[in-house]
């Protein structure tokens, strides 16, 4: 039971951004951190999985079912891509914003909400412990609260694949830990496939079950964080030297440094 990507090629016009990319099994109940320098292809990969970008070649399967064979509505139910932008600052309440995400699956915006939809919204707000924000306008929320609302918009649709593009952007340290701890717990509890694009390698090492390192549209390394981060190809992808050591709390810490300058000849 897993998401699998085989020989995926994606281009924007004449510019190829993913080059025959293949992964191992990205299993349900596990978080895979997708890391790599800017421009490595992380967002393009997520858009392709979600169906917003059509590949030139290759397949993406979920539990051996080819996602390309699904209708647009079925693909939207199976996958959810939460982009880098937080939930928009709108005057609508948190409850209504999450409800609209739920109703968008059926395209019935003009139809009165069904009891099942209202119950689903209430359930996900309780699951994320933000039921106290239900009547608050999204425009009044902090960045961390808006990030949780974005996750609620995803979960209320009950996706099988959750794609999080920089879920900790613009959050303080405490909120980063809270959001990733929550994402990990939800992934386990709902037995979904979660991919999270992260820039902070120490956070990726701490919370992810697997790391997928992209470099110029290709997979440089894949596997358990402790294994992947010690490989020279991972450091080469970032053009840095990576030092690894345990934190006082027992977590793997990543210490990047610029490579030594070459002496002038």
**Uncertain spans:** none
Q: How far apart are the termini?
A: 56 Å
Shape designation: globular
Gyration radius, to the nearest Å?
19 Å
Number of β-strand runs: 13
Largest sheet: 6 strands, mixed
How do the SSEs run, as a string of H and E? EEEEHEEHEHHHEHEHEEHHEE
Report the total helices.
9
Task: Please give the share of residues in helix.
Answer: 25-40%
Question: Structural class per helix/strand content?
Answer: alpha/beta
Strand content: 25-35%
Question: Keyphrases for this structure?
Answer:
single chain, 265 residues, alpha/beta, six-stranded mixed beta sheet, 27% strand
Question: In short, what is this structure?
Answer:
By secondary structure, the chain is of the alpha/beta class. It contains nine helices and 13 strands.
Can you describe what's shown?
- With 265 residues, this protein is of the alpha/beta class.
- It is built from nine helices and 13 strands.
- The chain has helices at 42-50, 72-78, 94-104, 115-127, 143-155, 173-190, 201-207, 225-228, 232-238, and strands at residues 2-12, 15-21, 26-27, 30-35, 57-62, 65-66, 79-82, 161-165, 193-197, 210-215, 218-223, 241-246, 252-257.
- It has a six-stranded mixed β-sheet, with helices on both faces. Strands 1, 2, 3, 5 and 6 form a five-stranded antiparallel β-sheet that branches. It has a two-stranded antiparallel sheet with strand order 12-13.
- The longest helix has 18 residues, at 173-190.
- It starts with a strand and ends in an 8-residue tail after the last strand.
- The mean pLDDT is 91.
